[in-house]
Amino acid sequence: MINTLYLPELREMLAENDSDGLREFCTALHPARTAEFMEGLSPEEAWGVLDHADLSLQGEILSYFDYHRQVEMLEARPPESVAPVVATMSADDQVDLLGEVEEETAEQILACFSVDDRRDVLRLSNYEEGTAGAIMTTEMARLSENLTAREALKELTDQAEHLETIYYLYVVDDFGSLHGVVSTRDIVSALSKPQKHLSEIMETEVIHANVLDDQEDVLRKMADYDLLAIPVVDEELRLVGIITHDDILDVVVEEAAEDAYRAAAVEPLEETYLRTSVLTLSRKRGVWLAVLFVGAFLTTFALEQFESDLERIPWLVIFIPLVISTGGNSGNQSATLVITALNKGEASVRDWWIIMRRELAMGLILGLIMAFMGMLLALFKSPTPYSALVVPTTLVLVVIAGTLIGSMLPLMFKKIGLDPALMSNPFVAGLIDLFGIVIYLKVALLLLE
Amino acid sequence: MINTLYLPELREMLAENDSDGLREFCTALHPARTAEFMEGLSPEEAWGVLDHADLSLQGEILSYFDYHRQVEMLEARPPESVAPVVATMSADDQVDLLGEVEEETAEQILACFSVDDRRDVLRLSNYEEGTAGAIMTTEMARLSENLTAREALKELTDQAEHLETIYYLYVVDDFGSLHGVVSTRDIVSALSKPQKHLSEIMETEVIHANVLDDQEDVLRKMADYDLLAIPVVDEELRLVGIITHDDILDVVVEEAAEDAYRAAAVEPLEETYLRTSVLTLSRKRGVWLAVLFVGAFLTTFALEQFESDLERIPWLVIFIPLVISTGGNSGNQSATLVITALNKGEASVRDWWIIMRRELAMGLILGLIMAFMGMLLALFKSPTPYSALVVPTTLVLVVIAGTLIGSMLPLMFKKIGLDPALMSNPFVAGLIDLFGIVIYLKVALLLLE
């Protein structure tokens, strides 16, 4: 919901050219809240307000706008006047933003950057999405190991404004190789002995990420070690970037949403649900819905094989949905448990045998429970008590088929290098529908003929 | 996988009473890694190693053990000797840990705490799970607004060891009410004017959480404002706790896993998948599997009503699974999209009308696509081309039913105060199975008789 509280006031101040008022507005609140209150303004109006803040504050407020608004803003003014603002943003935000605007606009903006800044952006944009390189930014504190605590604090004070975080300071040698890390906390504590060199204070076992690491691994490290930030190095162990707590939090939240979409057979959305057009959304849903639909043709072919049998034993039909949905549900449970365990690093493909045994056991237990309940229902619906046995027998087998297929398929996918989450709910359910039909009718024919 | 690299060495050092070696081991690495290397030791062996570290390092290393191992450790020695170690841990970790051990052991350990520490623990453990109070801890920096920058830095240096974070410092008045926040960065930058009072440096618009806030809202604030930590206040705006980036990251990761479980109709696990016993897991799965199973009885009753019709038009049977799985898949997509949008704060119950219109449109588009493909298949399988029309007609209606039910049910649940994620995949699919059967056969009878 757009916050319209300040809009009338802001428009009034713009109309009256109330510079003091607008400057006050820009600096009064946290940039994220300032951005929030500006949501309803047109790009021209928004620039009119931002003009009253210094360049780096402009960049900060801009970085809190929704992406599509940032893009509108960048395209509302000539590249030359927009570039200085973008230049104040941190490199990872620059990369993301310039990746969204028109290519020509991005090039023109980049052309206005300093050589160093432009090089940083180009290098960062080359990293593959989902790797540490694609999340990291380049504004981290690099201190020489020869500095004393006091000197380090002084250098820090000077640089503080431009750094992503001053709380973890990376200690490097003359070649830029990462040698250690020292926290501002450590420096502050060491001020009582101000002549100590960083090389004596620093922690040499630095938990770090490699620029090509998967973002899941980066998350795991940061979560396990409670890290505020993690340094990123290249193959030669040279310090090339930093990933901070806020960026990894954004990654986790986004990943969780993407996992949820994929588990429902929806291509992950780029924008929010309400902001994605019906046509785009239909495409993202339609492609997988169609795949599943065609896959379900197999159930039609399978039932066709048994059509004459079903004509002979018509009461069997009424249990078809019950049987296949129960198999699908148990398979879905197994798939979700295994995929979640794989994602959290709590299990690996090597555990397949243990997992299979456990799932077999659970399939048996759950199958017997469902079979018991199913038997009660079937006794009311089948012509003879003996023929009712078809239902519980099928249920046990179908639930076991569900747990086995549901647990093994994600492991197989992971083994061959695919994302196990692709083999989730709808696909597992579709496969088990097929097995369920065949099992049900084979059991029926076996018992009743 | 247990890291066994150091185990032989550690056991040798224990056997030989190599104090220097063990002390070196405890202090050499990040406590999390030290804990990792100690994973394979028995509780007695582990205590033997930890005895060579000072109390607060013992507590730190202990806090990185898996929960069930921490519990083993606490129960392996008398409460009086364990209490001093637990006392060094941060209050939120104490609360979580003491909540896991036997009640009697927890009481005995608490009895050894100082009055203040014990009060903190008891107060924190009273907060309902899922609220800010249940996540927060109490070791935050509280500085008086009358201190100068220099005095604040001095006080910080003194307290630094005991604080959860020294990077955000909360400025309070004499009653403990939160008046502002100042970052160590700000203090460091202000050192050039060391006589400035905190009241002049501090930010008075402090983004904060209330102790009863839902953890989702806390996460939203921390993610939106890129906060390293958020202060928690009570109703009188008194500062009572702090939630740091690492704790909220843990919450997010845990929440994502719980959402995934619930969406598959599994009661969320307390332990990891492999560590949860087959019986416990069967219970967590069985309860919902049974609910869904009984719900699916309705499909049996529905098909019974149409049993004679199916005997008259037997070829209809082969399309039943195709029809109901397509409806279920489209409903699952809608439910997931809406639930995710609600969770991320991108949509609310008030948007129901917009959502319904969009879902109706998508249901039509997707339904027509599926209908087209279904028509092609049906032409091959039905006795006459005209009768084949039953299938595409049903598919359009069933997909629309899916999108409407799938999107509206989570909204209804949220409206009446329930977790919308409860109305997810398996339940939506079950409901649509029922609708699908009824729609299919009604359409068939309409067109063919």
TrEMBL record, chains A, B:
GO cellular component: plasma membrane
Subcellular location(s) per record: Cell membrane; Membrane
An MF annotation (GO) of this entry: metal ion binding
Main location group: membrane
Keywords annotated in UniProt: CBS domain, Cell membrane, Magnesium, Membrane, Metal-binding, Transmembrane, Transmembrane helix, Transport
Domain CBS: 136-200, 202-258
Classification via InterPro entries: CBS_dom (IPR000644), CBS_dom_sf (IPR046342), Mg_transptr_MgtE_intracell_dom (IPR006668), MgtE_N_sf (IPR038076), MgtE_transporter (IPR006669), SLC41_membr_dom (IPR006667), SLC41_membr_dom_sf (IPR036739)
CDD domains: CBS_pair_Mg_transporter (cd04606)
Topology relative to the membrane: Multi-pass membrane protein
Annotated transmembrane regions: 360-380, 386-406, 427-448
Recorded family membership: Belongs to the SLC41A transporter family.
PANTHER family registered for this protein in UniProt: MAGNESIUM TRANSPORTER MGTE (PTHR43773:SF1)
Assembly and binders: Homodimer.
Its job: Acts as a magnesium transporter.
Official protein name in the record: Magnesium transporter MgtE
